[in-house]
Amino acid sequence: MSFIRCEGLVKIYKVADLEVFALQGLDLTVQAGEVMAIIGNSGSGKSTLLNILGGLDVPSAGRCFVGEYDLLRMSAAKRVQYQRETVGFVWQNNARNLIPYLTAMENVLLPMQLAGKAGRPARSHARELLEAVGLADRAQHKLLSLSGGEQQRVAIALALANQPQMLLADEPTGNVDTATAARILEIFRDVNRRWGTSIIIVTHDRGLARAVDRYVLIRDGKVAQEAVRRVVLDDAPVAAHEETHEELAVLDSAGRLQLPRELMQQIGLGDRARVEVEGDRIVVRKP
Ligand code: ADP
Ligand code: MG
User: Fold this and answer.
1) C-alpha 41 – ligand 2 centre gap (Å)
2) Euclidean distance between CA atoms 30 and 149, whole angstroms
3) Using CB atoms within 10 A of its CB, is residue 226 exposed (0-12), middle (13-18) or buried (19+)?
4) Ligand in closest contact with the CA of 39
5) Which pLDDT does position 242 carry in this prediction?
6) Per residue in 33-63, pLDDT tens?
7) Angle ∠(183,36,136) on CA atoms, nearest 5
């Protein structure tokens, strides 16, 4: 069974008299130990989805399971346990997690202390985490004295402090240069290999998305496309221009399909289409 199962997920925010549909029947499954990315324009619902998966926000309707947790029916106590034991969060702005006047080590120890872990085992685990993100030699440095990229790596170590089964990263490379972004991706891969952590990366950087095996595109609160890395046989020549991933449109359980806007514009398709079977294909054309 998949580790994450979301079906027809809906999230409505009420703002004064207005209702904002942030998620509109989103389907998503993620396997345990998978590293995948979510891309989409600003406002498409990426952060809403991540906050729901992280247990920070409650869906309005639909179904969403992570491991044995039902995210729509979870007591307050269970939710706290879920947040503490299952999820680690990395944000674009790491100030949300980190305390500037503490050292890297003290920062990573904080969530462990909150979970009642202390003493030598906690310190040795914190050291292992700082080593995993390549900051063993910065452990005793105050956060303020570290570069932005180093601070983001401390934030990753901190997110892993309580050995979560999954790491959720919302635009983790949004504030760093390309070299640091590559480094962060490498760290995610290493974390995944070492501990089998499932990792979901929200990004608007297509390059970053193409670096993982699978990414989904969210549009208007739904998964519109999915792209899976092409399997290339070892001896097959790969042309430089060849796409690394095969992008597929996603059909939901009701058979709804989102056509890529570029394709619609290309043939001038409006809000009605003629749909016909021709041999083994379904053809969508202007009426
Ligand atoms: P993304 O992360 O892809 O940029 P979000 O998930 O942040 O998108 O937002 C999706 C939609 O929901 C947007 O229209 C946004 O304005 C709205 N939204 C997000 N959070 C809230 C909130 N707390 N209250 C009201 N509307 C919100
Ligand atoms: Mg966002």
Assistant:
1) 9
2) 28
3) middle
4) 1
5) 60
6) 999 999 999 999 999 999 999 999 999 999 9
7) 30
Q: Where are the domains of the chain?
A: 257-287
Protein residue with its CA nearest to atom 21 in ligand 1 = 13
Alpha-carbon distance 281 to 127, whole Å? 57
Q: Which two tokens stand for residue 55?
A: 């247990």
Name the pTM for this structure. Answer: 0.91
**Chain position carrying tokens 């050292």:** 103
Residue 12 CA, ligand 2 centroid: distance in Å:
16
Bridge partner list, 113: none
Asked whether 10 and 62 are in contact (CB, 8 A), the reply is: yes
* Amino acid (1-letter code) at residue 53: L
Report how far apart the first and last C-alpha atoms of the chain are (Å, whole number): 43
Sign of CA dihedral 62, 63, 69, 75: positive
For 238-251, write each residue's pLDDT tens digit.
555 567 888 888 88
Q: Which atom of ligand 1 is the closest one to the Cα of 50? A: 6
Residue 214 in contact with residue 228, Cβ under 8 Å?
A: yes
Q: What is the 3-state composition of the chain as percent helix, strand, coil, each rounded to the nearest 5?
A: 35, 30, 35
